[in-house]
Amino acid sequence: MTESARLMDSYTEMTELLLPNDTNNLGRALGGAVLHWMDICAAIASMRFSGRQCVTASMDHVDFIAPIEMGEVAVVEAFVFDVGQSSIDVKVEVRAEDPVEGTERKTTTSFFTFVALDDDGTPTAVPRLACETEAEEALRQDALDAHAEQR
Question: Which domains, ranges and CATH numbers included, belong to the chain?
Answer without folding.
Answer: 4-150 (3.10.129.10)
